Amino acid sequence: MGRMDAPSYKVTVARDLEDLIPVFMNNRKKELDTLRVALAAADFEQLRQLGHRMRGVGNSYGFERISVFGKQVEDGARSGDRAGIEATIAEYREYLARVQVCYE
pTM, whole model, 2 decimals? Predict the structure, then answer.
């Protein structure tokens, strides 16, 4: 993780979504737990569905990175790539811990 990655933790969100973001972020943290449980159970169908949902919510709120993570989970679930999904979940956890939201 070089210095060039730092800006990717900044997300600019439309001001009219401001009230929804705390709930949105809280749901993402719950999602992280659900992903970990599904991975531990090797439940690839659930992982695929979760990844698909992440792709949708990420883009609709302006969090492109969450959509990218979702696609990685979805693709990994399709190919049964446990190690890849585990790496994505770890990156997602790091992202959620460090993401900074600004409103405009």
Answer: 0.90
Instruction: List pLDDT tens digits, range 29-57.
Output: 999 999 999 999 999 999 999 999 999 99
- Count of residues making up the chain: 104
Helix (H) or strand (E) holding 101: strand 100-103
Cβ–Cβ < 8 Å for 100, 10: yes
Task: List, as own/partner pairs, every contact residues 91-96 make where C-beta atoms lie below 8 angstroms and the sequence separation is at least 24, other chains included.
Answer: 92/32, 92/35, 92/66, 93/32, 95/9, 95/65, 95/66, 95/69, 96/25, 96/28, 96/29, 96/32
Q: Which segments of 1-104 does DSSP mark as H helices, in order?
A: 21-40, 44-61, 64-79, 82-98
